[in-house]
Design a protein that fits this description.
Layout (H helix, E strand, L loop, with lengths): L2 E12 L1 H4 L11 E11 L5 E4 L7 H16 L7 H13 L7 H18 L3 H5 L5 E7 L7 H13 L5 E3 L5 H15 L5 E4 L6 H14 L3 E3 L7 H10 L4 E3 L5 H10 L4 E4 L6 H14 L4 E3 L5 H12 L7 E3 L8 E2 L10 E3 L9 E2 L1 H7 E7 L1
Parallel strand pairs: 4-5, 4-11, 5-6, 6-7, 7-8, 8-9, 9-10
Antiparallel strand pairs: 1-2, 1-15, 2-3, 4-13, 12-14
Length: 372
């Protein structure tokens, strides 16, 4: 089997439902363009993947994969995933503006081909550990009030999620009352997390972190810029609440941060950690150092399905992250929805194991990019 070509479809999606009454934030696009990639082979088996598209980067990403990486793939046997993974990572070494994300896009499509060829779900090829993963909900509001947080936390618990993550980043004076409201809403035993996207400085993170200790939060995610390794470790040493980090680190950086003991729980996904291959390696590395890794949503449906497969193949991770339903597009059957008990289930079909909604895809395609 050989790789023969690539098709990328740009899917246009209205972003406004994501932000609701708060409106689209300044500087953010009101329309997203997500690239849907199809890797073709001479055996008639296609591999599917997607690129991130909600930052205005989707169109550029589609052309980048075709113009820079396709030449490295043509003629290769897609079943040799490990060999191709190393080859395209070496190519990325000289793409100084990039991280491992393009490797991740390509790697997911390769694993989809392998699964279809072997007639097995990707998780089974990796060596399945489980068939379902508990989901937690990430909040929708970026600038909430305590009343908004109380209402949303209550709704998420009632909906059956196994936890609720606060996802706002203002300042401790504004954020701390919302932390108290969340705990009041869900009671003492329900897992709560706080994600700051590296918006605080060390002093602010210590102030907020002591409140999270008091409220028995499950983790404190990316409170400060995570490449400030010594400061992240200081937080991990001084706070009772576990520090979760590593979301934006490259694989090589991840190894050094884990060795240094910079955080208590690791973070990764198939996009930022160079695909299914890279994320699975990261889980293994964390396991050897006695750490859990909590998989990060990519707000990209096919990539999140790939995340789910890897999460089903490991034991040192507890949850799947579930965000706004606007990101669950282009698929039949809603495989990223939780069941009545709050779990996501491993897709049972070969490869990614999902069925694409081609009527929806055709209706939302604004451009088709092909190669060679």
């Amino acid at each position: 089997m050989k790789i023969t070509g690539l098709t990328a479809r740009l899917l246009e999606i209205d972003a406004r439902p994501r932000f609701g009454d708060e409106g689209v934030p300044p500087g953010r696009p009101s329309v997203w363009h997500y690239p849907l990639f199809v890797l073709h082979t001479d055996a008639g088996i296609d591999g599917y993947s997607m690129g991130y598209g909600n930052q205005g980067d989707g169109k550029a990403l589609a052309h980048l994969v075709r113009d820079v990486y396709l030449a490295e793939l043509l003629g290769e046997n897609p079943l040799f995933v490990e060999a191709i993974w190393h080859k395209i990572r070496r190519r990325t070494r000289h793409m100084y503006a990039l991280m491992d994300s393009v490797v991740g896009i390509i790697d997911v499509a390769l694993w989809d081909i392998v699964g279809k060829q072997m007639q097995q779900p990707i998780a089974m090829l990796l060596g399945a550990y489980r068939t379902r993963v508990p989901g937690y909900a990430t909040g929708y509001s970026f600038h909430p009030t305590p009343d908004i947080v109380f209402k949303e936390a209550s709704q998420m618990k009632q909906a059956g999620y196994h936890g609720y993550k606060l996802h706002f980043w203002n300042d401790p004076k504004t954020d701390i009352p919302c932390m108290y409201a969340a705990r009041e809403a869900v009671g003492p035993g329900f897992p709560l997390m706080q994600d700051l996207n590296s918006k605080y400085n060390l002093t602010q993170a210590l102030e907020a972190g002591r409140v999270l200790d008091e409220l028995n939060f499950y983790w404190f995610e990316e409170p400060i810029p995570e490449r400030q390794m010594a400061n992240v470790r200081k937080l991990a040493d001084e706070l009772k609440t576990p520090i979760l980090g590593g979301e934006t680190l490259r694989l090589d950086e991840m190894a050094e941060h884990i060795r240094y003991g910079a955080f208590d729980i690791a973070r990764g996904d198939v996009y930022s950690k160079a695909g299914i291959t890279g994320l699975y390696k990261t889980y293994a590395m964390c396991e050897l150092f006695g750490l859990n890794l909590e998989v990060h949503t990519m707000a990209t449906p096919l990539l999140d399905v790939a995340n789910l497969h890897v999460a089903c193949a490991v034991q040192n991770g507890e949850f799947m992250e579930i965000i706004h339903p606007v990101y669950r597009f282009g698929m039949v059957g809603n495989p990223l929805d939780i069941d009545a008990d709050g779990y996501l289930h491993m897709p049972q079909g070969p490869g990614l194991g999902i069925e694409l909604d081609w009527d929806w895809i055709e209706d939302h395609t604004i451009e088709v990019i092909t190669g060679p």
